[in-house]
Amino acid sequence: MHPIAFRIGGLEIHSWAVMFALGFLSGTWLAARRGRQLGLQPQLVVDMALWVGVAALLGARLMYVALETPWYFRVPWRILYLREGGLSMHGGVAGGLLAAWLFARRRGVHFGKLADAAAPAVAWGTAVTRIGCHLEGCCYGRLTEAPWGVLTHYAPGLRHPTQLAESALCFLLFALLWHYGPRLKPRGGTFLAFAAGYSVIRFGVEFYREVPRILPWLSVAQAASVVIIVVAVLWYWRLAADGEST
Fold first, then answer.
1. CA angle, corner 223, sides to 222 and 228, nearest 5?
2. Considering all CA atoms of the chain, what is the largest pairwise distance in Å, rounded to the nearest integer?
């Protein structure tokens, strides 16, 4: 665990922030490259990425605060303490998706094309950012006696390195989407494959994370993942049947 990447004078730059920035910048480059292959102007994709990045952070934080409302009622000022962690990936995707949809409508661009260009990049950016989570010590796993257990200052004992497991799986998801995405003919199909693929990853990783459960075997993120998988599969089936996205 290495929460502070470096210091500039008295300012501490956290590892999570560095990895998020790296993931965002490299992901934007990847999205622009894929966008060009889909007939989109790279600058258009970059413009979208700026809006999506802000909306994703806002959505991720709001979703996390909503899930932890009782605690934040007692210490509301800590809502602004992003350095302590507390971001929901599902909230981030929802916020980014809404921003991308509004951007597409405003620019008169097919939303499915933009979403397909962004999908592999989002998987890549998530993989890079999860490394930052590991360095920061947040999003930690359950207690373990396995040799791969790691320490975090947020909780005692050795923990499953769930951040690194999710990172590795998201890198794999990126590779699959980058290679096979162009073969998914309906517009929007690559993004739906990302949504379903990431939800499968998150569902599995959640079994090893230290998170509240709405049932003994089910967390909020797992419940959301199941819903997203079902919606993504049905939506893709509809797009494939229609021969085009709406």
1. 95
2. 59
